[in-house]
Amino acid sequence: MSRPVVRFTPSRRYLSMGLAATAGMLLSAGIALRWGASWEEIVRAWVPDWVGFPASFSPAWLAAILFALPAVVLLMLAFRPAIEIDEKHLKVGTRQIAWSSIRRLDQTGWNIPLAVHLTLRGENGEDTRVLLVHPGDADSCGSLLRYLRRYSREALLDGIPYRQFWGEPSKTAQKQLPAPRYQLLLPEEEEEVERMFQRLKTVGHLDQRSSDEK
Prior knowledge:
alpha+beta; 2 domains; rod-shaped
């Protein structure tokens, strides 16, 4: 089994931020449970009944919800599987994707974390679209995107053909390019060769002796 060219793992910052958000959620929920009755008494004492404010709903519960949502997202990102770049395939966790099966690679608006759409060629002829997410830092996300674009040789990169995206001439253009010409003789030597060729056409031989010597 060949070793991967490079391996990308989630940044530890996502785990740290996810744990911090979880702590904020638990703290807010604890405050709501501990001081919920006191908050209800304050609301009933100061807020008129016609306002319709829910006295039993503590603002701490709202804070707990606001902490819970990012905590779930951050922890999901923190435990995303590693992404490995191999010469023949892309590996996401236990799934292997051959580079030749990638037909399109489209970048989304998410750069950090990186999110790209991969359009894969299916066995039954139908294409499937996969969202690839890498929760890394700026350098890691940029490096992974370059590797994906470089190895997806048969894919359209953001709608642009591979060779055109990387500024490489197409195969047809390479065939149409004329062969380079190299100067083998000096101008004086070219003139001498031309005179000899004209003499050969006129006389039939390259003997430079005069007619008197014949």
